[in-house]
Amino acid sequence: MNHSPIIECVPNFSEGRRPEVINQIAAAVRSVQGATVLHIDQGYAANRTVITFAGQPDAICEAAFQAAKAAAELIDMRQHHGEHPRIGAIDVLPLVPVSGISLDACALLARQLAFRMADELGIPCYLYEAAALKPAHRNLADCRKGEYEAIARKLADPGLAPDVMPHPSFLMPQPTYLRTGCSVVGARDFLLAVNFNLNTRSSDEATAIARKVRQSGYKGQPGTLHAAKAIGWYIEEYGCAQVSMNLCNLHETSLHTAYLEVSRQAEARGVKVTGTEIIGLVPMETILAAGRHFCGKSEADEDLLISTAIRQLGLDSLRPFLPEEKILEKVLQKTKQNE
């Protein structure tokens, strides 16, 4: 990838149960020269798939559009049900600066991408995080409030409507958005999506813990973790409840800090954290920092730190955690070797 500007795209698609659909969307990404698929994370119970790809900005924006086009054709939101909140077939589409490019530049690219999706695919788009045009739309959860089922009501309210609307030809005689839903497009820094497994099937217990730890808290009481968003749910596929969390700033709240705090809050309720599920890729430093914490050493062999983090966080509790497939830098290194 040389020293050219590199961005990462981490779109979340509302499909996790039909491998043939996921494969076609991934193929649309791979059809664009210069776009490299780094990881595909398929969730059956959530009925949601995260595809991570990276490359130079022009290639990534084109690949994102082609993926959106494929998803719009293959996913019918009128038939979609899953545990994860969602508002559209291409539910959220963030651009993330990796090297040689600023967050502001990614925000401009995200806005251009949203207008193209509306103009050519008929998908209404919200602009969030660094690409937001309205303060009320900066937070993803606010854009997605009410989910797919609330779209018609939100479109009728100028204060709640998406930032970018399609040409009227996409709205008559039957609106395109009935099939595609809306998309939330934006630019952000690296975000770690992680689920903490609990030794209970109770989604109520998981929700109560999530309310204690997430920054926004609950009913006016702030949570204990900064730059953290969290909800609770039950995943039938795993037979356990989870605290599902986005860590939005790993400098403010590290993975191991979140794990320890969720464990503390769980134990206060007579529940235990039994493992950790990372969605997508994780930076090497995040894993090494966890390894150093649990080893109690500031300096140690990299392999030792990684194995310690995997063991102490329970990263392999649901399936094997393979560093060459889950740690961002190792995936990039493997990709370069295969080029």
Explain the overall architecture.
The chain has about 350 residues and is of the alpha+beta class. The chain has helices at about 20-30, 55-75, 105-120, 140-145, 150-155, 175-180, 205-215, 255-270, 285-295, 300-315, 325, 330-339, and strands at about 5-10, 10-15, 35-45, 50-55, 90-100, 125-130, 185, 190-200, 230-235, 240-245, 275-280. The strands form two sheets. Strands 1, 2, 3, 4, 5, 6 and 7 form a seven-stranded mixed beta sheet that branches. It has a four-stranded antiparallel beta sheet with strand order 9-10-8-11. The N and C termini lie close together (about 10 Å). The relative contact order is 0.11. The mean pLDDT is about 95.
Gyration radius (Cα, Å) is 20 Å
**SSE pattern:** EEHEEHEHEHHHEEHEEHEHHHH
Helical percentage: 25-40%
| Average pLDDT metric | 95
Number of strands: 11
- Structural class assignment: alpha+beta
Dominant shape: globular
- Main β-sheet description: 7 strands, mixed
Termini distance? 10 Å
Percentage of β-strand residues: 15-25%
pLDDT < 50 stretches: none
| Total helical segments | 12
